[in-house]
Amino acid sequence: MDPNTKSELVIQGIAASKGIAYGQVFLYLQSELEIPRYTVDPDKRVAEIARFEQALVVTRQQISQIQAQVTKNLSEEEALIFDAHQMVLEDQALIGETIRDFQKSGLNIETCFNAVAERYIKAFAEIDDEYLRERAADIKDVAKRVLHVLLGQTAGSLTQLVDKRIIVAQDISPSEAAGVDRSAALGIVTDGGSRTSHAVIVARSMKIPAVVGARNLTTRLQNGDWIMVDGYDGVVIVNPTEQTLFRYGKIEKAQKSFESRLMAVIEQPSRTLDGVDVPLRANIEKPDEVALVKQYRGEGVGLYRTEYLFLSAERIPTEEQQYAAYREIVSGLAPASVTIRTLDVGGDKPLPGDPHLIGPEANPFLGFRAIRMCLQNPGMFKNQLRAILRASAHGKVELMYPMISGADELDRANALLDEARAELKERGQAFDEQLRAGTMIEIPSAAIAGDVLAEKCDFFSIGTNDLIQYLLAIDRGNNRIAHLYDPAHPAVIRILKLIVDTGHAKKIKVSVCGEMAGDPLFAPLLLGLGVDELSMTPTLMPAVKFLIRAMKMSDARELAVAALAQTDPAKTYALIEAFYNERMKAV
User: Cis bond leading into 335, ω under 30°?
Assistant: First the structure.
């Protein structure tokens, strides 16, 4: 098809893997499995369970082969993706529920396994946290493979891609992505998916441009159509004109030059033009992310989200299991500091190891979550506190509590921490007796009563995501009102200033670990307001560090003064954007 015979169509998706690709479409449409439903004779039920167990064994072998292939073609780091798949196959809750359903209903094992897997997929798909939500994709991918084995069918494959094409699909599972020949795939576009999907991680590793969330693009295209994929801005252009192709050629050249300059600052100090050092620390969830922190020269970890350890396990982790995970991170980054946040589940994060511990709630974000749940379960909470304390013997550790709303909660948490210390002393187990305990400020009441909290803790860490959500009464997951979530709102800027001034008046450090910290547009405003350090996803560090090295702290303070005086969010944002553009114009 001649790209100029049809009018140009621009679709906005989500940028997932950087780069620009232009080529013909390879439409990869996966058909839905048809699951037969029948009753198994009582005398054949033992054999039916054996058939299920054999299917699990075969699927494990398949995934091991994929993992070996990824290790060979990419790296061991990318192959770790499939550890999560093997964990699904060893999940005794998933397997046990399937067998119990089968024994109860007598229906064929495919029907029972599919029903149980769908329940798990639905539960994880509803989690607000993008990274954790991707476990639904893991379960879906593995379940599909198991069902293919049970039905004696061959799973779909992208190995049939031989020409240089752009893959367009409704979604691509991690194992399908692993089968992509990078010499044949120019780019990847999916109707669904997210930036954190394993398929996207594989695409990034292959340096293939990718856009996700292109909403029903598969229904608008045919094999052979010509499209442009912009993995920088998340744009897909169908039938691009010659002018568009020329413009994107220049954009790609400029982007590559800009990226090389960003990466060049990794080895440089995070220091402003007027000589102010700004510590940049990392937000992480898993021990294997230590390598990323080092790669991007993070000055330790400002937020280690411990809930991943709980949400990826079929049972609540023991003190020993937690200690092993925390120790791996702390010793891996020593002597740099690691700030470990205590368990923050509830709200958008159910607890698979004990689903009844929290239970369904009408308003989960305002309900039994985070520190509230921990204080009501002191035995479980002290297991975590002791594990964190023990890890502090292997490097520098800070501990912080999430969702503190007032002094009473902080007092009770600190009392349990003191009990944990005493118990470890009685056991004769080592820990850092100078360990600092801080408070996340993410509820407006904590910001307003910050002077009281500052007397009882060693530092503040501002969680801007929830703070803005609660301050403006905006559910970020509600598409009808998500546009009202505005970091440039005057109330947001004023409350940030209040938190910083309160902390500094009590001579404690104030950091930010929410999304604003990793945004090079807003980082100067935060620093101008007096924030001491920023913590972010490691891959965001080069862009933030680049801007810090291109600005003066005195100018950032002037920006903060101007923003505090402004009452119109749009005009405030214009000030912030102008500050950014002025410092980037020479790039």
Answer: yes
All residues at 6 or more sequence positions from 472 whose CB lies less than 8 Å from its CB, including other chains? 484, 485, 486, 489, 491, 492
Query: What token pair was written down for 361?
Result: 């709630």
β-strand pairing of 235-238 with 9-12 = antiparallel
Report the pLDDT value the prediction gives residue 198, as an integer from 0 to 100: 62
Q: How many CB atoms lie within 10 A of CB 45?
A: 14
From the candidates 85, 198, 394, 489, which is the catalytic residue? Answer: 198
The answer to whether the CB of 78 falls within 8 A of the CB of 174 is no
How far is the C-alpha of 553 from the C-alpha of 260, rounded, in Å? 25
- Where are the chain's structural domains? 9-30+157-237, 42-151, 277-538
Q: Are 217 and 168 in contact (CB under 8 A)?
A: yes
Report the candidate in 465, 457, 471 with the shortest Cα–Cα distance to residue 515: 465
Neighbour-count burial of 7, counting CB atoms closer than 10 A to its CB (0-12 exposed, 13-18 middle, 19+ buried) = exposed
Give the 3-state DSSP-derived string for 8-68, with helices as H, strands as E and coil as C. Answer: CEEEECEEEECCEEEEEEEEECCCCCCCCCCECCHHHHHHHHHHHHHHHHHHHHHHHHHHH
Q: Is 198 a known active-site residue?
A: yes
Q: Cβ of 175: how many Cβ atoms within 10 Å? A: 29
β-bridge mates for residue 236, sequence order: 11, 229
Nearest to 171 by CA among 210, 127, 129, 228: 210
513 is catalytic: yes
**In contact, 435 and 389? CB cutoff 8 Å:** yes
In this structure, which amino acid lies at residue 510? V
* pLDDT for res 87: 78
- Pick among 3.40.710.10, 3.50.30.10, 3.30.70.260, 1.10.540.10: CATH of 9-30+157-237: 3.50.30.10
Beta bridge partners of 536: 282
How would you classify the pairing of strands 14-17 and 210-212?
antiparallel
The single-letter code of the amino acid at 33 is: L
Nearest-angstrom CA–CA distance, 300 and 333: 7
Number of H helices, E strands in the chain: 24, 16
| CB 190 within 8 Å of CB 176 | no
Could you tell me the mean pLDDT of each successive run of 10 residues in the chain, 587 residues long? 65 87 84 83 91 90 76 62 76 87 92 90 71 72 86 64 79 72 82 71 77 88 89 90 85 75 86 96 89 92 90 82 95 96 73 60 68 92 97 97 96 97 96 96 96 97 92 71 80 97 97 91 97 92 92 97 95 94 76
Q: Is domain 277-538 classified as CATH 3.40.720.10?
A: no
pLDDT at 34: 83
Element (H, E) at 168: strand 165-169
* DSSP assignment of 414-445: HHHHHHHHHHHHHHT----TT-EEEEEE-SHH
- In the sheet that holds 235-238, the strands lie side by side as 9-12, 235-238, 226-230, 20-28, 165-169, 185-190, 210-212, 14-17
pTM comes to 0.66
**400: closest CA among 445, 442, 347?**
442
Extract the tokens encoding 131.
């990274």
Homologous superfamily of the 42-151 domain (CATH) = PtsI, HPr-binding domain (1.10.274.10)
Residue 2 amino acid letter: D
Residue 414 carries which side chain, given as an amino acid letter?
N
